[in-house]
Amino acid sequence: MERSLLSPDGRQRLALALIWLTPALWAVNFIIARSAPGVVAPHQLALGRWLIAGLILGFLARAELLREWRGLLAVWPQYLCLGALGMMVCGAWVYQGAQTTVAMNISLIYAAAPVLIAMGAGLLLHERLTLTQWLGVPLALAGLMHVAVKGRWEALSEVQWVIGDGWIVLAMIAWAGYALLQKIWPSQLGATARLSAICAAGVLCLLPFALWEAGLPSTPPWSYRATGLVLLAALAPGIAAYWIYGWAQKILGASRVAVTLYLSPLYAALASWAVLGEPLGWHHLGGAVLILPGVFLATYKRPV
């Protein structure tokens, strides 16, 4: 098990700081998903992402994994389930859906994830949010919707749904399940060792689908650009984002950490502007005015 040099209060403060970084790391996935079509197939991209991430994490946690291997084998179905949800569905299926849907639809769909997690945490984990925290949830949601509809609320009636939206809906539900099951199935492993074990299970789930894609005539041949996308996916929205999320969830609880997902569209807009040259609008500023205080209130917990 990992030992911490920080006090409980220090871990709380660090977790609260880091969860604001996690959506920024996940925003990189928007750039990757938009760049992947025609370069690398969805399951191959996800397989490479989690294979590299798992190897790096496994090396770092090798002593703990060797020491706890019997315990891991005893609960292998749990890890296989987490790997399927977190690495295959939330990985490859997001890349699959991004081939035919648009960012606005993805933002609207993923807006439901924190709500599902908060409901599940209340029903299954008996986590209780304060009134202040509950006030932050709709405030952040309103900001996210403001960004998604580009400040034109009447555009909600103009949203057109395509098959890619179905993939994103399944990925959103899977993410809620992944977040809740990590709390329902507590582990004695540290954050690094546990994530490496989940990566290994995810690779097993992804491998047959990646091999199937390799035999399809429509699958692009491997290239340096594909390698770059895989490496980027492994490091930013892979190791860094998932490790921070899992560690912070242990400290803060599933529902409080989940609310920071509302920051993803805002960060994605900034990333698209910086990397892809997409313009920023006043609706992004308006969304930030709602999202940032909303996330602060939803994650705030009065000291005792």
Can you offer a commentary on this structure?
This protein has one domain (23-299). It is built from 15 helices and no strands. The model has no long low-confidence stretch (mean pLDDT 82). It has helices at 8-18, 22-35, 42-60, 62-67, 69-74, 76-97, 103-110, 112-124, 131-148, 163-184, 191-214, 224-252, 254-258, 264-276, 282-299. The two termini are 28 Å apart. The chain is mainly α and 304 residues long. The protein is 75% helix and 0% strand.
What would you say about this model in short?
With 304 residues, the chain is mainly α. Helix content is 75%, strand content 0%. It has one domain (23-299).
H/I helix tally: 15
Based on secondary structure, the structural category is: mainly alpha
How big is the Rg? Answer: 19 Å
Order of helices and strands: HHHHHHHHHHHHHHH
Shape: globular
Spans of 5+ residues with little confidence (pLDDT < 50)?
A: none
Can you give the helix content as a percent range?
over 70%
How can the largest sheet be summarized?
Answer: none
Span between N and C termini?
A: 28 Å
Proportion in β-strands? under 5%
- Overall mean pLDDT score? 82
How many domains, as an integer? 1
Record field, number of beta strands: 0
